[in-house]
Structures are given as C-alpha cells and as structure tokens.
Amino acid sequence: MDEQLRWGIMGCAGIARDCIMPAIMNSTNGTIEAVASRGVEKSRALADQFGVQKAYGSYEELLQDSSVDAVYIPLPNHLHKEWTIKASQAGKHVLCEKPFSLDAWEAELMIKACSDAGVLLAEAMMYRHHPVLRRAQQLVAGGGIGELRLIRASFTYNNPDQADNIRFRSAWGGGAIYDVGGYPLSAARFFTGMEPEAVTVNSFFSGGHDGVDMMSSGLVEFAGGLAMTFDCGMWAEERRCLEIVGSEGRIEIPHAFSGKEQSGYYLFSRGELQEYRETEINAYVRQIEDFGKAAFGHMPQLFLPEDALRNMKLLDACRLSAAERRRVELR
User: Fold this and answer.
1) Which residues contact 164 (CB under 8 A, 6 or more apart)?
2) 175: alpha, beta or left, given left = phi > 0 and alpha = psi -120 to 50?
3) Is residue 313 helix, strand or coil?
4) How many CA atoms lie within 13 A of 87 on its CB side?
5) pLDDT tens digits, the chain, 331 residues: what are they?
6) Are the beta carbons of 206 and 216 closer than 8 angstroms?
7) Would you say 322 and 216 are in contact if contact means Cβ atoms under 8 Å apart?
C-alpha cells in the first residue's frame, strides 16, 4: 500500500461529516485514524458512520495519539488559532478550515508555531485544487483573453433561519465576509498574481443575527487600474460564480467555488464560445491528496500558509471598510 497520512478530525461540524471525511476516505493517500469532540457520544456516532475505530471525548486526547499524523480543524473561527498552535506543538500537520483565523495577527502566530514545529499548515480553500480553476488560471496567465481588465465574483447562499448557527455569532467570527468572502477575494489574488492596493466594502448588518454582516459587496483595487468587484452573503439567492474579463475575451466559471459539483468554464473570445468541462472530480479529494503529497515530501505545497496570511489581511481590510464605511488602503 502507498503511504497513508493518518488523519484526526477535530470536531464534528457538518463540513467535516459531509465533505472532508468522505474526501479522506476516497483519497489515495489518506485514512481517518480518529475523531474527537467535546463529548465522546458525538464523536463516537460520527466515527461509527465512517467505520473509524477511535473516538475521543476531548481534543487533547486526539493530539496525544501518536498514530495521528495530521489534524483537520473545522471548529468555530475563534478557536482556529488556539487549536492550530496546540496541534503544531503536538507534532501534527494542520489543515485548518477557512477563514484561517480571526485576523492577520492570529494568522502570523499560527504560521510561526507550525514553522517552529516543522509541521505543514494549510487553509482549507478547496476550490483552488480543482483542475478547472488551474486550467483557467493558466489560460489567463498565458494571455488567452488578452490583458486582464476586471474580475467579478459572487458567493452567496440563503440560510438566515437557524438561530443556533455559529455563523451568526459575532464574537465567534460570524458573518458573510468571514464565512464565504475569502473565496472571491482569494480568487482575485489567484488570477491576478498581485496583492490589492485598497478596498471599499458596503455591508448589510442584521440586528436579528447578532449584528453580523449577512451580505457584503465590495470593490478591490489592484495596480494599473485593474479592479475586482465581489459580493458574499448568507441571506441571498445561492450563487458561486466567477467571471474574468480581458481585453480580448472573458471566462465564466458558473460553479467556481463548489467542491463536488460538475464544473467547467466558458471562454468567450472574438464572438466565439468554447466550453471546457471536467466531470467526476471532487476538489475536496484533490485538496486532501495534495496535502498528503506535500506532507510526505513528494511535491511542494501548492498554497503556502503565507498566502492565507495575505488573504487574511485583505479580509481585515474589508471588515474595517464595512464597519467604518470608508475606503481602506492596504500596505
């Protein structure tokens, strides 16, 4: 059997149950060694669902398990820093769910802790591992649509009625920018290969949801007059689309930020339409396999933790702009 990275699942969130654990099970280089929760009954039920033998009633027990090589952290946002650092101190590689942290300062502490411990650290931004996104990025970088002029991106869903949803708790890092804003913002950086100069964001803050932003829209400025417009929301019709506009063509990716749906893109150039499609590819599985290859030293990390830090600085600027209703420059 090929090398297998032995994963510990730190929490029983829906994203772990529905996306990451199936991805590990379907990967070529990963196995689930253990599941942990703050109550063993909950972790035992999830472990049984996937045929995992070990279930722990605390995260500390999981980190003490020497047979666990890496942990996946899908905990509420305000706990990412604490448990990433503790996992690194226990010698575990870390795949941390987005958003990476609550702010750039926390991200820097997480990166330093993992670097000092010599363990791998990555943000779970699965969409960038899909070959459709990489093919489109290569097309843009190669001048396939001429000079880059504009990027438009949207990630919205409609789920305002769950009173106990952790995304509606301000102190825990709730809100649309935290939850889904990182996708379009990282896409702009991914396709331009540049860091933004300034942002202007307007948000709908809901008093019925602990004051978090339920919808945010913004303008991201890059050098040379290049711009990106985005919106993200938790109380709007679902959209996960990305458009890259150039001087000689444009690319549309209807499901850019989806992990499991069939995905492709449309290229419009000089009055002609071409369609490129990939089917039966799961971006979550690709993410797990890429992480494992990097952990075993078979390939470099595709996205370094410093990239997550830079995206966190952009999220910080967007949240500040929305809160103070002003343009914010990034250094």
Assistant:
1) none
2) left
3) helix
4) 32
5) 479 999 999 999 999 999 999 999 999 999 999 999 999 999 999 999 999 999 999 999 999 999 999 999 999 999 999 999 999 999 999 999 999 999 999 999 999 999 999 999 999 999 999 999 999 999 999 999 999 999 999 999 999 998 789 999 999 999 999 999 999 999 999 999 999 999 999 999 999 999 999 999 999 999 999 999 999 999 999 999 999 999 999 999 999 998 887 678 999 998 899 999 887 789 999 999 999 999 999 999 999 999 999 999 999 999 999 999 999 999 8
6) no
7) yes
Contacts of 91 by beta carbon, 8 Å cutoff, 6+ apart: 117, 119
Count of C-beta atoms within a 10 Å radius of residue 116 = 11
98 tagged catalytic: yes
∠ CA 312-315-317, nearest 5°, is 115
The closest alpha carbon to 250, from 272, 225, 228, 229, belongs to: 272
**Helix, strand counts (H, E) of the chain:** 11, 16
Quick one: tokens of 201?
């964001």
Structure tokens at 298: 């078979």
How far apart CA 133 and CA 75 sit, in angstroms, is 27
C-alpha span between 30 and 27 (Å, rounded): 6
Task: Report the alpha-carbon distance of residue 208 to residue 20 in Å, rounded.
Answer: 31
Whether pTM > 0.85 for this model: the answer is yes
Task: Quote the crossing angle between the two packed helices 104-117 and 305-324, to the nearest 10°.
Answer: 170
Which of 98, 260, 293, 313 is catalytic? The answer is 98
